[in-house]
Amino acid sequence: MSKIKKGDNVVVIAGRDKGKRGDVSRIVDANHVIVNGVNTVKRHTKPNPMKNQPGGIVTKEMPIDVSNVAIYNPVTRKPDRIGTRVLEDGRKVRFYKGNGEQIL
Known about the structure:
By secondary structure, this protein is mainly β. Helix content is 0%, strand content 47%.
């Protein structure tokens, strides 16, 4: 079970955008995620009439390493670590290590 999933609210804990919060919009691979509003770059693109794409400067989000983000705990209002536990009925759930509450 992956610790960070699509839709999780995360905080950047290292790098240029340290302290920024955003939702995970996409999991790129096992070690990289794309977070809304974080790690944005400007890309200069040429126009492509075949794809009906205009040229210019496009702002886009680039992947960020999973080790540089931590899930946001709304109860403590801080970044937190994630653990997994198996319930009595056999389901695997994630929980915050800071206060032990289950992640919904």
